[in-house]
Amino acid sequence: xxxxxxxxxxxxxxxxxxxxxxxxxxxxxxxxxxxxxxxxxxxxxxxxxxxxxxxxxxxxxxxxxxxxxxxxxxxxxxxxxxxxxxxxxxxxxxxxxxxxxxxxxxxxxxxxxxxxxxxxxxxxxxxxxxxxxxxxxxxxxxxxxxxxxxxxxxxxxxxxxxxxxxxxxxxxxxxxxxxxxxxxxxxxxxxxxxxxxxxxxxxxxxxxx
Amino acid sequence: xxxxxxxxxxxxxxxxxxxxxxxxxxxxxxxxxxxxxxxxxxxxxxxxxxxxxxxxxxxxxxxxxxxxxxxxxxxxxxxxxxxxxxxxxxxxxxxxxxxxxxxxxxxxxxxxxxxxxxxxxxxxxxxxxxxxxxxxxxxxxxxxxxxxxxxxxxxxxxxxxxxxxxxxxxxxxxxxxxxxxxxxxxxxxxxxxxxxxxxxxxxxxxxxx
DNA sequence: TAGATTGTTAATCGATTAACAATC
DNA sequence: TAGATTGTTAATCGATTAACAATC
Lengths: 209, 209
Description:
Two copies of one chain form a homodimer. By secondary structure, chain A is of the alpha/beta class. In chain A, 45% of the residues lie in helices and 18% in strands. The first copy, chain A, has helices at residues 7-25, 33-40, 44-54, 66-76, 92-99, 102-105, 136-142, 154-166, 193-205, and strands spanning 30-31, 64-65, 83-88, 108-115, 124-125, 128-132, 147-150, 171-174, 187-190. In chain A, the strands form two sheets. A seven-stranded mixed beta sheet of chain A has the order 5-6-4-3-7-8-9. In chain A, strands 1-2 form a two-stranded antiparallel sheet. In chain A, strand 5 and strand 6 form a beta hairpin. Chain A starts with 6 loop residues before the first helix and ends with a helix. Chain A binds a DNA duplex through helix 3.
């Protein structure tokens, strides 16, 4: 069905979506590759190549229809569906994510949260009540999650991921500083905050001679 | 001094650092490009090119000296210095980051935190006391920060960044869903959590025909 | 029609991979 | 020395940029 889209283009889709959303809010009807490129820090040529790659359509002499293209990208990103999330690990980060409301705006819905610490079990956080990891399988049967958010120690992440995979979870949003090894049909996106900060350290160090 | 290193290589440095740290903990003295490549999901050839690019040195027939190479990369990443951080915006994420202890292990030290909400001012969080944004300039004079962590609404991020830049801050770790525009000598690394999750949505949607 | 801008083909650039001589 | 593995040069691959004909 959907033909091949190069990975660099896919990674830019969310950014396209963001800028098109902004433009739509400003009631802009059409935007040229030149303007979009400038906003996004790309070349106009690259924008035209990207659009062509992800199947967008423009009008010569006029530009790209903002609303239509945003909708098209939204569909590619699977925004038409609601995704259910479960958060594994109620440390500082887990707690913050559970309370983060921006997700719901984007049709991501946190439906459960787990921790291994019995002291945290039963506590209400955001819209969910923390459960013990022992109840994972049972809970996943009753209320399956599309995506697991892994905010637990590196040492526990791989095993938890395997357990979740066995429960049918196929999406993994990984915050633990490890690279997960899961079967091909699992989708993993990692957020390595520590590495991101280290990269900033590098840039800071080497920004002028 | 330091010769040019291609950007893709730089972005891999933190991952090299992570795996070398693990190997060092296991008391591995040398590691071959083949083994390192397998761990990191790269080709051996790429590892050798990377190492050569960032100025690492191996021993033929033997591999790369783990501890030495880790130290070398650490120096490139500026890990020899302690970096001071200020967190701007005490929402869920800001609070989580202030309490996050992994940073200190990596020689990043949070020394102040700000919010525009007077109700939050004066409250102690993690190792710092929240201050009102009004006190930003004064505080930066007394205790300058190398890096500002921007965990505030998109609409406020650009202006806050400019203010911080004017205070002499040159590193920006940006969590707001905007792209910052700052002078050349500022180093910006953005963590777009929403976009990262959207990418996962895409992968989930398109993982098998 | 004239002007603007797309869509696409060709050219360039840079990153990854392959190959192999150098050498520990 | 023989075996293993680096360091580097060459080949390939893919992404970005440039150019321009097609067309709204």
